[in-house]
Protein 1
Amino acid sequence: MSTPAAAKSSRATKGRLLPLLGPAFVAAIAYVDPGNVAANVTAGARYGYLLVWVLVASNAAAMLVQYLSAKLGLVTGRSLPQLLGEHLPRIPRLLFWAQAELVAAATDLAEVIGGALALNLLFGIPLLWGGAIIGSVSMLLLALQGRGRQRVFEWAIIALLLVITVGFLTGLVVAPPQWGEVAAGMIPRFAGTDSVLVAASMLGATVMPHAVYLHSSLVNDRHGRDDEAAGPGHIRRLLRATRIDVTWALSLAGMVNIGLLLLAASALQGVEGTDTIEGAHAAITAALGGGVGAVFAVGLLASGLASTSVGAYAGSEIMKGLLHVKVPLLVRRLVTLAPALAILAMGAEPTWALVLSQVLLSFGIPMAVIPLVRLTEDRALMGEYVNATVTRVAGWAVTALIVALNLLLVWLTLTGGA
């Protein structure tokens, strides 16, 4: 039984920790971007509840990876791209930057296309013009991420995250899933080559490479590095707050992702044309009503706006750390918007372009996770905060599973295996 003094101490601790929360919610936006919508709706519409286990495992892995990224930043005062830029020779550093930029481009493609789709569904705006509007509005959000305005940016992103959650989970109230089948979907298995491709896209959409690079920057942008002024135990207090931050943020993102798959499995499975976002929206509207369909589209719009802003922020940090070149966020936003608009102008099928972008992201995950685990287990770098044995084993296990899934995808694709 807790005493009044203990309760007061608990409230005081929470009061000290709550103002420290926020960076993980910004990183979590990467986990509920339009690529997630495409991958998870496709998975549910095609395979029902079969791939629920992929999302559960991916989200658990994401929590570990994002915490390690934040921990690296807090302990060293530098981001993952900065540390890699310091440790890698020139040629490997440039090659590493090239693949990181390719991953960032795939991310931006998914986010802009998703937002353009939302505007098309809501207002009938052509995809190309919708992409331009999403890019323009994202610049306004990025303008909040200036000196002294980090907290404002975080609150704007958190507000959009709440809109995303409501938008994507409302349909489950009208079309609840079959919980017995959900439980069966926790058993790891596939159903042919295409299901592996979809699972890889789900993994790429859930454990996002650019979020891994970014989180180590976010915590330092937010908390700074004046440890002496903060007093003893400052880093431990920040790490404790970060564990809470990551748990809350990624639990919410995981709930949204699983909810998307369950909605598609319960309301869209077997319905013709529901493996695209447009088809899914039409089927949701037909089956659950125009109100639910509109709320879904609003969630997609919020997802595109928030995630493209965070993606541009991540790309800027990657370039600054690996190339030692700082490009203004708004300038970078203009440059990275071009490929996505070009894809829209060519008339590529939007949902399949989103799914393939997530597959590309899944191949970029090991490039971010392997050096992250290696650096956080380096005692010379991390000191007393070096990874414990359990964390080290879990980190390498997650990395091995990611690499194994990617190798399986390549093998099945080349051999046509089932």
Note: Confidence is low (pLDDT under 50) at residues 4-15.
Protein 2
Amino acid sequence: MAYYDCEAQSFFATTVDVDMSSLYKRFLRELVGGAAILDAGCGSGRDARAFRERGYAVTAMEPCPPLAALAEAHCGLSVEILRFQDIDWVGRFDGIWACASLLHVPLAELPDVLQRLAHALRPGGILYVSFKLGRGERENGGRRFTDLDEAALGELLRLVPALTVAEIWTTADRRPDREDERWLNALLRYSHSP
């Protein structure tokens, strides 16, 4: 949080114009037009704006107040200042977009956070997540990261049986000069059991 409080403007500038359309395509094909989407950890507001412009009902949340203010100005939506660990929505969204945001949650807290996100989905809803490809927790440049590979994600999901993998793939970073960085992407389906 301290990193983003201080670096909100530079983070906004380096991420707001990144073309994410290929990832949007995979996520949005799982949803009907006008579906309710949560942009969880919306950062610059880039993705919330893209979904809103495509006609979806978007809710955006971001734990860092300075970044939330920049996101609001960019996406034209009110951005809730909220940590993943405090999410308590139930059955509100058809899709949740958690792009490069859950990677800042400590590994020990991820099962609870994923369970909270699952409960925020309607039955059959879809959750998109992305993590830097790797394994373990680390600090880099004042930020902490939880890196996952496919096996580590599988281990994590065994603790959250309500979520099952619909699709999993890897991509290169979309930012200039960072193409060597690899990302683990997954679409997770919420299988509600009464």
Note: The beta strands are 36-40, 57-61, 79-80, 93-98, 121-132, 136-140, 143-147, 163-172, 182-190.
Protein 3
Amino acid sequence: MEGINLQALIDTGMYYLTTYGARIIVALVVFLIGRMIAKTIANFTRKIIMKAHVDETLGMFLRNIIYYVLLAAVVIAALGQAGINVTSFLAVLGAAGLAVGLALKDSLSNFAAGVIIILLKFFKQGDYVTVGGESGVVTAVNIFNTVLTTPDNKVITVPNSAVLGGTITNVTANPTRRVDMIFGIGYSDDVLKAKTILKRILDEDPRVLDDPAPQVEVSELADSSVNFVVRPWCKTADYWGVYFGVTEKVKLIFDQEGISIPFPQQDVYLHPVDSAEQ
């Protein structure tokens, strides 16, 4: 009985070996060669992408997508060579892909936005931006999110869909910026003298650029002050230094020159009431 079972097992093995052996070998060859070709194509594509000066993160991500898509095609081709019906397999794979796509629709939206942000280069690492209602220095532009560091050293992660869906303000995109300031003097003060002092303060600051020329003009006759707009230009990196330095110097020199800087005030008058009227 054991001899009969052994012989039957050997016969069955020989049958499957002669029937499917060649197919399995061909399938393995297709898989190995196909995987090698997929890796070669993916790496070649990445090199082309990097030559276009695309972000490294995006280049690697696209390389991986291409590789795994080609590898999936190779696996399906190998299974077909092995004699396996891949129609049902493709149906299951399609249903699984649809389910995953629905589950990750927000992530896919962030991914698509990240690709657009990296390709169009709205900003780069080190820029100070306002995106998605948040402001800070860009420390990383990832596929799914953008990371900002605020001036007080907080880290904010903004989804790329929120970045692309709103207004993008890149403060440091240009090499120069205009500093907008307003200074007021009293109505009894000498307007021309104050204007001369403001111009001198700007001329003496080495950070203020000559071109474009700074602007000092009377802008408003307000309720309690005559207001000047003071608009010097400077390098973007010097913006806050100019803003704080000029403001401090205006106060010190105005005090030295006897020019007043009005502040809001309210006068309250009390009228006595005759007790007989009560």
Note: The chain has a mean pLDDT of 82.
